[in-house]
């Protein structure tokens, strides 16, 4: 036990209550070799924090379940909500070192160096969205570590732990790998604590945290009101959605003949995904009444329901709003071999949030890169991503709205919000086109499909999905 | 693919929108042997439901992570929220059969027959709290199953699945075990679907669901306003909290001498829990300002922070309110070898919810048994549960409130709610005593500790915890 100055506790109480009031999410990362003393430091810190707003998150060696999700999944999932504090005892750094040491490739389908980029981008987007990340590396000389190990060994109750430590110390060259991380550029700086002098390492831990919290509190208090106007151009002329909508049609017989073979291929794709343990994300965006639901229904019709989930995305809940906007999507990503349909998606950030002013200009502009990085990190895990945009013309939407109004079996589908969205048609077109220009990548392409003819749109969307997946599965 | 009558889809749409409006949670369980055709039935059903309110939950053979939590944990976790529908494709029944076949004992420390009781109690408490559970067992003759298997084998993409099926069919005598379940009493009846006649099994599936949904909708619409008055006696005389509060005290030196050895023993307990892979739940209840937080702090002071979590329980969130009241606690139970502290707990049901009228009389009265069953099911998984009640006298509480008011470092701890709670002191005493009488079990005992002297209370609580845990660990 570290004997803690009462003043540290008081000051930490003050500062953490203030970050809580200001709704600043804080992540304190404690890395360090086994038996370096980091556990004692972490505990000293943990004891000063209000349990109501604090989570202690220990990263363990990779388990079976970890390997079924993207590398960063457990850390996204554990993200503190606004005003909360997470202590990460070992973090994505130790996790990646464990992966490399064990040569785990289940959920890393690229060179490990790309995961280092993902980690960089992960920290960057958190910081850009107001998270405070404070990172420590606890260093201890070999004799200090030996002393700690000896203490563990001498207690019969903790002997097994000493053995476990010994085994893991032999296996992983944690310190050498960490050195590379410490030297590389990072969005949030490291503080190195030398455990040789126990007292001064405790002091340094607390002083660093106090300093960082004070600065982020001051920064938040001074923050100016941001611009929130969506930056829309009047009389925007679409360049991408200039279809001859009447051209694309498909009669009933033709539709059946074309649809069923594609549905069968989709089913085979599901089997292959499962076999190769690759996850698939199918993202659908488009105007209200564009036919996203019906489209998804045809795509999944022949699939094994144990292998897919459908995420119908609507307004975020209170808890979702209190997290990074990608959090609620990250926790819904499919596990290996499975398919997730997204009926609307993270692209809401640059569509509805931009249009309705829920995201500031800075936020939606930075979202393009954030989303590209997010999708890239999923692709690194082996994921296939296909994005379908169903485009309707304005007259056809009106027809469909009127249809819904008249039909008692469909009227529940039409809400006041649909009419309000329709009033912002031009803004929606502009936001959608800019979205596609900025996020159409070779790993996760957009397919824009004219949606006036439902049959045509279903066959066309499914065809794009099937062809892209087959290509990726053959690679 | 089953060719589905359009009328089924329409009717299902109507009924499920109505259960959604009425906020009735629905669980549809589909059990059946491998290759029985249940997948096709499940898919036909899934396709008729609105993805927004439906989750398809497939139960897989037990994984490493399952074995680290109580048996029912994945099903509690997956509970639909009010107004949602879950399709459980294989359920707790198939799961238990898998456990028995593989002889898994990691998280089942009792004879499997006790888990059957837990399953009964699980369904019962869900039904009692307004869940609609509709259970199907799909039967198919051997020749029908062979046909299904052949179809899988003939397709090169699904050949591996046929092999997997074959292997699992050989290993587990699923059908024989299910027969016992089908014969035994259950809170929600089974409907058996014979897949010999495919069309009629589909019809029977939908008609059963329609019938059940219509009945529960009607029942909900007719529901009378329940009694919500807490049933408190005027001038209630405590029988349990009649301490001589001044008697129990402890001076500073004595305190230190007694506390530290107990903290060391607590640390050893943590090691042993980890070694034996047993979870520990420490529950703290008591009046406002009784010292629960300070008490917990002393108990955890020497513990390895990677092995415990603290759940500070406050008012439920929107999502928590939309679930069975035990849901938010079940998802926070510790995994094997870990400790969870609960600073307030599920006992809120029979305390604050009773007192404030958030629970009806029927609800809080039934909660005693529900809670006993809940704790019993955790004990079956190997858990140790200790419950501490810190009792304060009314004058001492006033002193502490005033102290907090005066001290700028403590005033944040005192809220208007604390004063409002104080006005209901007598009701709180009555509810607490009745709670203890009704839920003090040998597996999960209550220790009532006079809390006027903080030092005495800390040592005493820790002593009770340590002694109980040591006893359980030696068994």
Automatic annotation (TrEMBL), chains A, B:
GO terms for molecular function: transferase activity. It comes from the Bacteria. Pfam families: PPK2. Signal peptide: none annotated. Keywords: Transferase. The keyword Transferase applies. Residues 11-210, 250-470 form the Polyphosphate kinase-2-related domain. This is Polyphosphate:AMP phosphotransferase. It comes from Aliicoccus persicus. The lineage of its organism: Bacteria, Bacillati, Bacillota, Bacilli, Bacillales.
């Amino acid at each position: 036990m570290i004997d803690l100055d009462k003043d540290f506790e008081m000051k930490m109480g003050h500062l953490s209550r203030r970050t809580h009031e200001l709704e600043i999410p804080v992540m304190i990362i404690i890395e360090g070799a086994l038996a370096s003393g980091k556990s004692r430091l972490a505990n000293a810190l943990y004891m000063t924090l209000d349990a109501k707003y604090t989570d202690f998150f220990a990263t363990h060696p990779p388990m079976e379940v970890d390997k079924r999700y993207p590398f960063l999944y457990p850390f996204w999932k554990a993200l503190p909500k606004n005003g909360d504090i997470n202590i990460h005892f070992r973090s994505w750094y130790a996790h990646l070192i464990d992966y490399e040491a064990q040569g785990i490739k289940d959920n890393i389908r690229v060179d490990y160096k790309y995961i280092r980029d993902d980690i960089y981008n992960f920290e960057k987007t958190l910081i850009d969205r107001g998270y405070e990340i404070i990172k420590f590396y606890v260093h201890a000389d070999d004799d200090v570590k030996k002393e700690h190990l000896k203490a563990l060994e001498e207690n019969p109750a903790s002997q097994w732990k000493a053995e476990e430590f010994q085994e893991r110390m032999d296996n992983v060259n944690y310190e050498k790998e960490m050195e590379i991380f410490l030297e590389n550029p990072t969005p949030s700086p490291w503080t190195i604590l030398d455990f040789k002098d126990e007292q001064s390492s405790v002091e340094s831990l607390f002083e660093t945290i106090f300093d960082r919290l004070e600065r982020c509190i001051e920064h938040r208090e001074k923050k100016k009101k941001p611009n929130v106007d969506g930056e829309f151009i009047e009389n925007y002329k679409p360049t991408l959605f200039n279809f001859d909508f009447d051209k694309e049609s498909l009669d009933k017989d033709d539709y059946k003949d074309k649809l069923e073979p594609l549905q069968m291929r989709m089913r085979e794709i599901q089997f292959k995904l499962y076999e190769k343990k690759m996850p698939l994300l199918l993202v659908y965006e488009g105007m209200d009444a564009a036919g996203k639901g019906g489209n998804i229904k045809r795509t999944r019709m022949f699939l094994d329901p144990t292998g897919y989930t459908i995420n119908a995305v609507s307004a975020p809940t209170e808890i979702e709003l209190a997290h990074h906007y990608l959090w609620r999507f990250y926790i819904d990503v499919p596990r290996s071999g499975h398919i997730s349909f997204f009926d609307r998606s993270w692209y809401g950030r640059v569509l509805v949030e931009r249009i309705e002013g829920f995201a500031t200009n800075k936020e939606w502009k930075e979202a393009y890169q954030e989303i590209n990085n997010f999708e890239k990190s999923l692709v690194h895990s082996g994921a296939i991503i296909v994005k379908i945009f169903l485009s309707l013309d304005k007259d056809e939407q009106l027809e469909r709205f009127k249809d819904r109004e008249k039909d008692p079996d469909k009227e529940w589908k039409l809400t006041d919000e649909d009419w309000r969205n329709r009033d912002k048609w031009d803004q929606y077109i502009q936001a959608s086109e800019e979205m596609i220009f900025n996020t159409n990548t070779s790993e996760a392409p957009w397919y824009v499909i004219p949606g006036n003819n439902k049959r045509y749109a279903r066959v066309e969307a499914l065809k794009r999905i099937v062809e892209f997946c087959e290509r990726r599965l053959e690679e």
